[in-house]
Specification:
By secondary structure, this protein is of the alpha+beta class. The protein contains four helices and ten strands; from the N terminus they run βββββββααβββαα. It has a five-stranded antiparallel sheet with strand order 6-5-4-3-10. Keywords: Membrane, Transmembrane, Transmembrane helix.
Length: 244
């Protein structure tokens, strides 16, 4: 509703002149009399985003699922397993040490709680297999006996000599051995080493895996002890420190 500036009489909507005094109605802002209808808020737009795939995501290289409030702190490509053929990763979370590997037809998962870790034993270097050296030397000596026989023994001697040299060559191999010991006998430890064999019960390894070092092995050996110690003493406060 608008009013005449001259006489103050009400003026009908859309009228150009005042009905009482005939004065011309000036154009005024009638925004105060107009009530704007409230507008509905815009509908929320839902976007489907693919979460980033980080190195320690469950399912990557046989990585098991994470527990509630469990986060990955560090992950190392710690070794190359020979039997079964696979690349081994050691994933450190705020709750567990997890070794996992996945090959074309095999899968390995070993884990121990962070709170139960009582010691670490690591070795990286040349592993010499004495049994293979002795067997290779015996084959080489046997080949010389076949050479002295002559005839068809020469061919057999060449094969025996080749096998002996091959065994001696394979007896020297770069190896990586690691054992994570638990503080109590109820928790099994993680063990990687030369050959698959039983080591009995207790807090030692249940079995070992033949493995070789990788580009991450040396860094893991330097960091792992301090990382476990911080997680045991600082708890989740160590996650930010080691995630940077």
């Amino acid at each position: 509703m608008t009013f005449c500036d001259k006489c103050g009489s009400p003026i009908e909507e859309g009228s150009a002149f005042c009905g009482e005094c005939g004065a011309r109605v000036s154009k005024q802002d009638t925004a105060a009399s107009a009530v704007s209808e409230p507008q509905a808020p815009p509908a929320p737009q839902h976007r489907t985003e693919t979460p980033p795939r980080y190195y320690g995501q469950p399912g990557a290289n046989g990585m098991p699922a994470l527990a509630e409030n469990e986060v990955v702190v560090r992950q190392y490509r710690c070794c190359s397993i020979k039997r079964p053929s696979a690349n081994g990763d050691l994933t450190v979370t705020n709750k567990r040490l997890i070794f996992h590997a996945e090959g074309s037809s095999s899968r390995v998962v070993k884990e121990v709680p962070i709170s139960s870790v009582g010691g670490l034993d690591c070795f990286m270097g040349m592993n010499i297999r004495g049994g293979m050296i002795v067997l290779g030397a015996l084959l080489a000596l046997f080949s010389f006996l076949l050479f002295r026989i002559g005839g068809g023994g020469i061919f057999a001697g060449m094969i025996a000599l080749a096998l002996g040299v091959l065994l001696i060559f394979l007896a020297f191999r770069r190896s990586f051995l690691m054992c994570v010991y638990a503080q109590n006998t109820s928790s099994s430890s993680i063990s990687l080493g030369s050959g698959i064999f039983s080591r009995g019960a207790g807090n030692g390894a249940l079995y070992t895996l033949a493995s070789e070092p990788t580009h991450d092995t040396a860094r893991m050996m330097v960091e792992l002890g301090a990382l476990v110690q911080d997680l045991q003493t600082m708890g989740d406060h160590a996650v930010k420190k080691w995630s940077e």
